[in-house]
# Entry
Amino acid sequence: MPSRGDIFERNVPGTAAMLATRCVGIAGCGGLGSNAAVSLVRAGVGRLVLVDHDVVEPSNLNRQHFFQTDVGLTKVKALAGHLLAINPEVRLDLHDAKLDPAGLVVVFQDVDLLVEAFDTAESKRWLIDAWCRTWPDRPMICGNGLSGLGRTEDLVVTRVGNVHFCGDARTDLSMGLCSARVAIVANMQANVAIELLLGRMP
Amino acid sequence: MIRVNGQPLDWTPGMTVADALAKMDYTAITLITVFVNEVHVATEDHEVTPLPDGADMKAMHLHHGG
# Structure
């Protein structure tokens, strides 16, 4: 079994050790959340709090980090298996539950920041409301506009206060979803999270 | 004068976040989240949050997909 040192040998020097002490909350483990979680674990983040109430369906396999053998499992359980297969030492808090404002305060109490990875705009809005009301000084990273094809140049990070929006702020789920574009936005979220966790973002 | 998403908008005393959204014709309120001078304003507070003259308001339109 490779050691933690072996896994992170090629990471940016000094970062994995620092990230090992950090904790990230992920609200939703679909296209954004599952892909962001994988990148955060590969970067060396030591603990993740995963919340989702869905089970893996065949239609998820076009963009979410799941496999045929995951179909029918809860997303948090399936994703946990994949994350532990990358780094068996990562600490995972799993919540197979539908998140609401009251639950948010409990499950994300001690995370350093939140990755918002919900499906619907209405859900994103209440989550931003609840997060900013509860922890106005704690960063939140939202996915906003990741549908359709191509137009990589439209995908940007926009920071307003302590909320970072990743995406094109234009495209909608009704346009259909392409794995590459969803994964780019998920990894933009992970990249912002890593910068924030390392204190490297102005 | 205030700015909403970078666009100038005439300011009047007592003007609220909800007033500014209406003047900008941002009607899909359930899909918008608002910040004033970098501070988030909860949806339930839009109608009671006054905008100071010179405010920089950002109304972020949220899109389905995750």
Chain B has a mean pLDDT of 95. Residues 35 and 58 of chain B are 5 Å apart (CA to CA). Helices of chain B lie at 17-23.
